[in-house]
Amino acid sequence: MALRVRVCRLADVVPGELRSFRVSGVTWPVLVTYVDDALVAVPGVCPHEDVGLETSEVDDGTITCPGHGYRFDLRTGRCGHDPALELRRYPVTLVGDEVFVDLL
Ligand code: FES
Known about the structure:
This protein is mainly beta. It is 0% helix and 35% strand.
């Protein structure tokens, strides 16, 4: 069974901006934005070496980790520098104007 948690309201998400939301009981925030008009939610931590991604900016659907500069495509989670790395994409569900993600 999925662990579904509320992250934010739809109005809190801004196209082209990576918004960071704290979720109770979770170490790293959940980052939410729109890519190609679709809601995308990812963990706020790099899968390379656990550096926070909250300060990353969205550029053409990708973000760059401030740690070592690896880029991640938010559409797929793929890393442009290391194919073995993937930024997890949380399944997103809208309930009214509330945004939920499945952490597990
Ligand atoms: S910690 Fe993110 S690229 Fe190294």
